[in-house]
């Protein structure tokens, strides 16, 4: 198994990044649409799926935090200016935290709901509620917090993805290829950014 290298992201960081990113985008779209569908039964079913995928994202995001603490991060791409390095570090730290905070706020919302509906993740695992007192005020607070955090994360992720695409398409450097190795042969040909000796 390839570990995180000094100059680029390793297999596990790459797999976690794209799995969480895709799940997060799908989860956001589901969150916005699920309460607008007609029919209580379908709405109930979609909210159960939303909660299930939310817990999956939470698990993967915690795993990613642990992975970063253990494996460390590669050096910033030399293509980034000092200002870009600082802003990328801040945005990525916020995104790391947000992928944990958004599902936690959703969990708090489900736990404070006066309806008291249990969460059976993927119809298999019963997830207990957080030890919070259910009330209409608490539920409204966590609904707002959950929605606000989800929107803030999406806007941040859009800026983050836009910056990565700008580097790839306009500046034609290795910033996106470090996180999307399928681009590496074209982008990194001839460069010495990912030698096997970095694996040590
Ligand atoms: C990364 C994971 C998650 C994302 C991106 C996400 C996103 C969203 C979004 C965008 C909404 C619509 C908010 C609005 O209409 O203003 C929503 C609603 C909701 N989410 Fe999540 N969510 C996530 C995880 C969870 C989890 C783990 C739970 C519960 C265990 C949960 C429970 C809910 C519920 C119950 C609603 C409906 C709120 C209502 O009644 O209007 N979510 N979510
Ligand atoms: C879909 C478009 C996306 C693109 C093109 C993209 C691209 C990238 C790139 C190129 C990096 C490495 C930057 C560097 O070398 O410093 C990165 C890192 C990162 N991205 Fe994204 N990203 C996308 C979506 C997302 C989403 C939706 C999230 C979270 C909700 C996210 C969270 C992160 C985080 C936390 C890092 C730091 C490394 C890690 O922990 O995985 N990204 N991204």
From TrEMBL:
Main location: membrane
Sequence intervals crossing the membrane: 12-34, 46-67, 88-109, 145-165
Biological process terms in GO annotation: respiratory electron transport chain
InterPro entries xrefs: Cyt_b561_bac/Ni-Hgenase (IPR011577), Cytochrome_b561_oxidase (IPR052168), Di-haem_cyt_TM (IPR016174)
Sequence ranges assigned to domain Cytochrome b561 bacterial/Ni-hydrogenase in this UniProt record: 9-181
One Pfam family per UniProt: Ni_hydr_CYTB
Required cofactor(s): heme b
Highest taxon, organism lineage: Bacteria
Keywords from the named record: Cell membrane, Electron transport, Heme, Iron, Membrane, Metal-binding, Transmembrane, Transmembrane helix, Transport
Location(s), subcellular: Cell membrane
Bilayer topology: Multi-pass membrane protein
GO cellular component: plasma membrane
Gene Ontology MF annotations: electron transfer activity; heme binding; metal ion binding
Family, similarity comment: Belongs to the cytochrome b561 family.
Stated name of the protein: Cytochrome b
Organism listed in the record: Kumtagia ephedrae
